[in-house]
Amino acid sequence: MKLNRLRQQVFTQSQSAMIIFSDINITYLSGFTGHAATLVFTEHNNYLLTDYRYVEQAEKQATEFTVICRDRANQSLASLIAELLLKDNCQQVNFESDHISVEQWQQIQAEIQQQANISEFIGKTGIVETFRMVKSQDEIDSIRQAAKIADQALANILPLVKEGISERELSNELEYQMAKLGSEELSFATILLFGARAAMPHGIPSASVKLKRGDFILVDFGAVVNGYRSDMTRTFIFAEADEKQKSIYQTVKDSQQAALDAIKEGIEGKALQKIADDILIASEYGKYRGEGLGHGVGLQLHEWPFIGPHCDYKMELGCVFTVEPGIYIPDWGGVRIEDDVVLTENGLEILNESPKELIIL
C-alpha cells in the first residue's frame, strides 16, 4: 500500500525513477531499520542499496525489495545508482532534495549524467512525509503501547519524589523505568525541570538543582515501540501550591480541553491553535503562552502536521498528533500539559491515560 501510494505520485510519466535517502523514510517504505541504505525505485523495480554490515538484515526486513550489497571499496553509491538506472532505461530522476546536501547531490548527479546519460533531475520535498501523517492501525497500536509504557513509568516514579532529589536523579529513574517496561530507547532526551526552570520548554535536567517545597515539576518524555514514539507532558507541584500556580495550571488545562473538544475530521490545524490560544489570551498570562499547539508524532518525534497558526492541514482519520498548550514565565516557572491523540472513525482517542487534574505531590 505504501509503495503503491508513492508510485502513483512519483511515476506520472514513463521511464522515471525515485531515490530515497532519509533513514526514517526508508524504514517507513521498506521496513528496514538499519543504516547506510538508499532506496531506488524504477518503473518496475524496487531496490535497496546497502553494504555488507546490513545486507542480511535488509534481506529479512525489506521483503518487497531487491537488496543489493555495494562493494564500498570498489564502487561509489552514485555509480551503483547509475548502473541500475541505465539497466532499467530511466530518463528522469526524482530525488529527496531535503535529505541530502547540495554537495553530495551534485557529486551523485554528475556521475549519473556521465554513466547513464540522464539529464532530467527533479528535487522532491516532503513527498514521503505527507504519506506518514495518516497512520495505519499497526502504527497507531505501536504509539498506543509506547504511551502506555510512559504512563506506567511516570506512575512508578511519583512515590520517589521527595525534597532534595535532583532533576537528574528523577529523570534517570524515569528513563530506567521506561526501559524496564519495554521501551526500545528514549523517544527524545527527557525534559524534567523543577521550580523556575519549568519555564524552559526544552530544558535539560540538572544534577545540581534540587526539589524544594512549592516547586513545579514539569516532566516531558516518551517511550518507543517498534520504532514509533510517544510524547507526553505532565506538570505537578511539590508539597504546596499558591493561587497563582493553581490559576495558571487551570488555564492551561482549560486551553487543552477546548482544543481536544474541537478536534474532528476536516478541522484545520490553525483553527485548533486559535481555539487553544483564545483561552490563554483571555487570561492574564496570555503573553507567556507557547507559540505552537502541537505536532505529528510517529517514527519521528516531530513530524507533519505541525499544529500552529499557519497550519492549513485538515485533520484526517488516522492522524496522530500532540496537543500541548503551555504558559512559561521566565524566572518563575511554567506549566505544560500534553497528550498524544488519534482521530478515529469513533471520534478522538487520547492515547495517554495519566491524570491531568492538578496533583500536589
UniProtKB/TrEMBL annotation:
<protein>
    <submittedName>
        <fullName>Aminopeptidase P family protein</fullName>
    </submittedName>
</protein>
<dbReference type="InterPro" id="IPR050659">
    <property type="entry name" value="Peptidase_M24B"/>
</dbReference>
<dbReference type="Pfam" id="PF01321">
    <property type="entry name" value="Creatinase_N"/>
</dbReference>
<dbReference type="InterPro" id="IPR029149">
    <property type="entry name" value="Creatin/AminoP/Spt16_N"/>
</dbReference>
<keyword id="KW-0378">Hydrolase</keyword>
<dbReference type="InterPro" id="IPR000994">
    <property type="entry name" value="Pept_M24"/>
</dbReference>
<keyword id="KW-0031">Aminopeptidase</keyword>
<dbReference type="InterPro" id="IPR000587">
    <property type="entry name" value="Creatinase_N"/>
</dbReference>
<dbReference type="Pfam" id="PF00557">
    <property type="entry name" value="Peptidase_M24"/>
</dbReference>
<dbReference type="InterPro" id="IPR036005">
    <property type="entry name" value="Creatinase/aminopeptidase-like"/>
</dbReference>
<keyword id="KW-0645">Protease</keyword>
<dbReference type="GO" id="GO:0004177">
    <property type="term" value="F:aminopeptidase activity"/>
</dbReference>
<feature type="domain" description="Peptidase M24">
    <location>
        <begin position="142"/>
        <end position="345"/>
    </location>
</feature>
<feature type="domain" description="Creatinase N-terminal">
    <location>
        <begin position="3"/>
        <end position="134"/>
    </location>
</feature>
